[in-house]
Every structure is written in structure tokens, then in C-alpha cells.
Specification:
With 281 residues, the protein is an alpha+beta fold. The N and C termini lie far apart (42 Å).
Length: 281
């Protein structure tokens, strides 16, 4: 672990960011350039003391999870992320960690979306990051680990995952998830994480195995759908998707036409928050 270079690299990346780059208000005039240490720590979900010690060359060796969180908080590119791992004395990111690194371009767009649900997904249906409005609609899924992070896996192994869709639309959603996984398999190859997920689900779910035999392939989300909130009921939303160039990640934004019942319900999400999930889990 190169403590000197790690400290210098973290400080330089922090000083190049501005609050507006990460969705924070600019606030009063700042004496020093860039983000404050406590702001980076909050974005990476770690203590300010821990982050400060890293910049002061006296912190412990960060884990892979900590490094991934710092890379996301500092909006590092893939090359910068890999460099961060190396100077911290870690091997190049594992495929799981690398796949979970949010594309900076998508993150910048998400940072500017605060009044409507928005989330960034991998092509295996893993939520990489989502805003507070998406938390209120879908629930906070940051605690999930392993294959449970994939909505495709949860759909075919956890019946509770389907409650957010009306019963009449669940068949279409299941087919869409399988078709999207086949598209991911085509681009990633049979020995990739996509191939592993197919093998896991084929053993775990007869329904998945049957749908897989349809050989349907698709990448596009439905433009219009209905989602079910336990307290607010059905919400009709329009879906817009922005893909990275390699199609490995997507930003999903949910909106409703102004002055409609659905728009009012989306506004209420900010009031309802995530409290309702405590009673349904």
C-alpha cells in the first residue's frame, strides 16, 4: 500500500470536484477548492475520521468495498478506479466490483435528478445507485448482497419482488427480464456473470427455465407501465432509459405528465419516504 500516493490521489480528486458535480448545493463561498472531506465521506458512506486518516497517510488499508465506495463518491473513471485499487495495495477490481462501478456520465445525470425516481442499473438488473425518490418507490436495496442484488434473480426466487407490479402485468415483466438477460449473455459470453446467473436461475426456477427456452432477446424497457405502491396505490409512469456506450449500464428515469394523479402521487413519495417498507418486509 502506497500511503503517500493514496493520500495525494484522493486529495487531488476531491479538490477537482465541485458540490454541483455530485448533486450538492454550492452553499456559501468556500475557502478551499473542491469538496470537503466530510462531503466525500458522506457520499462514500464512511466516517469523516476514516476518510481524513486516509488523506493524512495514517489510515488502515481500505477494503475492496471501501475503495469501490470511494471510486463512486469521487466519480472516478474505470482507469482511475483501477489505479486507486493498485496504490491501495489491492489487486485489480474483481468482476463483481468492476461491474458495480457506476459510469461517471450516468452518475452526473442522476446527481441532477431529485424530484422524480431515478436509478442506475447494470445489465444484470443490479441497482448500482438510486436517488431518494427511487428509495421511496422501490425501497432501499443497498443492503442486498450476492445474486439478491439482481432484480432478475429476485423476481424468480422471491415472490415479494412482484408486488410492485399489477398482477395482470407480471407475466410481461418476467418475460422482459429474461429477454434482457439473454441480451446481456450475448454481449458478455457464456462464461461471464450473465452466464452464471442463467445457470443459477435455471436450477432455482422452473418458470425461468421455461421462459429461457423462448429465446426472446430485448434491451428496451417498456415506455409506459404501472407500478403499485402499498400506500399510494397504482402509479402510471413513463420510463426513459439512457444507456452507456457499451450497454452495460442504464439510467432509468420515471416521470408522469404534469397535473395528473400520477404526478401528484410521485410528489407524495417524498413525504411517504421509505417508512412503509418496514411493515411489508
Amino acid at each position: 500500500m502506497d500511503r503517500v500516493e493514496l493520500a495525494a490521489f484522493l486529495r487531488s480528486r476531491r479538490e477537482q470536484l465541485r458540490p454541483e458535480d455530485v448533486g450538492l448545493p454550492a452553499g456559501p463561498r468556500r475557502r478551499a477548492p473542491g469538496l470537503r472531506r466530510e462531503e466525500v465521506a458522506a457520499l462514500a458512506a464512511m466516517s469523516t475520521d476514516y476518510y481524513t486518516r486516509l488523506e493524512q497517510q495514517r489510515g488502515p488499508q481500505p477494503s475492496e468495498q471501501m475503495l469501490a465506495a470511494l471510486a463512486r463518491a469521487l466519480r472516478l473513471t474505470g482507469t482511475e478506479r483501477d489505479y486507486l485499487f493498485r496504490i491501495a495495495g489491492r489487486n485489480a477490481p474483481t468482476p463483481v466490483v468492476a461491474a458495480a462501478h457506476v459510469a461517471p456520465a450516468l452518475q452526473r445525470v442522476l446527481d441532477r435528478l431529485s424530484d422524480t425516481p431515478a436509478l442506475i442499473l447494470s445489465n444484470l438488473g443490479e441497482v448500482l445507485v438510486q436517488n431518494s425518490m427511487a428509495d421511496a418507490l422501490y425501497g432501499d436495496r443497498s443492503h442486498l448482497t450476492g445474486w439478491a442484488r439482481s432484480e432478475i434473480y429476485r423476481w424468480f426466487t422471491d415472490p415479494a419482488e412482484r408486488r410492485i407490479y399489477p398482477e395482470h402485468d407480471r407475466g410481461r415483466q418476467g418475460r422482459a427480464l429474461v429477454a434482457g438477460l439473454r441480451a446481456a449473455l450475448g454481449s458478455m459470453g457464456p462464461q461471464s456473470r450473465a452466464g452464471e446467473l442463467v445457470r443459477v436461475l435455471t436450477k432455482a426456477s422452473p418458470e425461468f427455465a421455461e421462459l429461457w427456452e423462448r429465446h426472446e432477446v430485448a434491451k428496451r424497457f417498456v415506455d409506459h407501465k404501472v407500478l403499485v405502491h402499498p400506500q399510494l396505490g397504482e402509479i402510471e409512469v413513463d420510463c426513459q432509459v439512457l444507456f452507456t456506450e457499451d450497454q452495460s449500464q442504464m439510467l432509468l428515469v420515471l416521470t408522469a405528465p404534469p397535473r395528473t394523479e400520477a404526478a401528484e402521487k410521485l410528489q407524495l413519495l417524498g413525504v411517504v419516504g421509505t417508512e412503509r417498507f418496514d411493515s411489508v418486509r
